[in-house]
């Protein structure tokens, strides 16, 4: 059975790192309930949801995607751009060690949210959280595993996957990338069919491919309809409280399928 690794919302979640958004009051109970609903959506998609150890003193611990890049049977442990988050990566490495061959980045900065894998190509955003040294380090590890790394500079959103995600194969057999063209240059992607997020739905380019489904934020109905028109099964969930911490659907799980 495919597996999705998650981590609980920390009691200190309201103290999360913020880069592009202003700080707003966060209802912790509501955020935790939305996260549980997200995990239920993963289960509906056929995934075994495995929670990594709680990190109650780490406000951003729920964003497990930033701490590792899963490539088949390999787990590349990252070096998150916010130094306060480095212990999260250590916890993830320990938890995944019995399931994956673990590799560790040793220099630079790299958040997993900046890593978008499509087949054997890995697009990596160069951002405030991910720098050139981190990308070069990942390219060295991933290259030995048969992947090509393509750098994507951006500065208008937190991570590459805030503004571009892989939706899967549509009903015409095309690889589809959902993108906000105001944030991410669509021309960097090769041999894919591009679907722009709907006007006024700036954060609508973050969808989570989970098996044969797309898990998608309920706040962006027009973009969801574009995806359904292409034949995708879209399971909408409310992550409004989590989004106050610059959350995207992809950042709250590590997908192994």
From TrEMBL:
Lineage, top ranks: Bacteria, Pseudomonadati, Pseudomonadota, Alphaproteobacteria, Sphingomonadales
Protein name listed in UniProt: Arginine deiminase family protein
Record's keyword terms, sorted: Hydrolase
Natural source organism: Sphingomonas swuensis
Family: Belongs to the DDAH family.
Transmembrane segments: none
Cited InterPro entries: DDAH-like
SUPFAM superfamilies named among the record's database cross-references: Pentein
Keyword Hydrolase assigned: yes
The keyword Hydrolase is assigned to this record: yes
Taxonomy, superkingdom: Bacteria
């Amino acid at each position: 059975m495919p597996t999705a690794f998650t981590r609980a919302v920390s009691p200190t979640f309201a103290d999360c790192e913020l880069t592009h958004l202003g700080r707003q009051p966060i209802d912790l109970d509501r955020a935790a309930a939305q996260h549980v609903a997200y995990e239920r959506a993963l289960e509906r998609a056929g995934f075994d949801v495995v929670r990594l150890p709680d990190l109650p003193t780490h406000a951003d611990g729920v964003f497990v995607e930033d701490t590792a890049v899963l490539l088949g049977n390999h787990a590349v442990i990252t070096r998150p751009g916010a130094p306060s988050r480095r212990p999260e990566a250590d916890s993830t490495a320990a938890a995944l060690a019995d399931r994956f061959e673990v590799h560790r980045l040793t220099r630079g900065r790299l958040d997993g949210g900046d890593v978008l894998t499509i087949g054997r190509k890995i697009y990596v955003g160069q951002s405030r959280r991910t720098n050139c040294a981190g990308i070069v380090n990942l390219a060295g590890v991933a290259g030995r595993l048969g992947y090509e790394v393509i750098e994507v500079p951006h500065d208008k959103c937190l991570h590459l996957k805030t503004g571009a995600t892989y939706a899967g194969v549509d009903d015409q057999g095309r690889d589809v990338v959902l993108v906000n063209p105001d944030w991410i240059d669509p021309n960097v992607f090769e041999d894919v069919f591009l679907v722009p997020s709907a006007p006024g739905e700036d954060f609508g380019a973050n969808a989570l491919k989970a098996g044969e489904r797309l898990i998608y934020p309920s706040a962006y109905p027009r973009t969801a309809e574009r995806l359904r028109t292409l034949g995708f099964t879209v399971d909408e969930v409310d992550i409004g409280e989590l989004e106050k911490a610059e959350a995207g659907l992809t950042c709250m799980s590590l997908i192994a399928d």
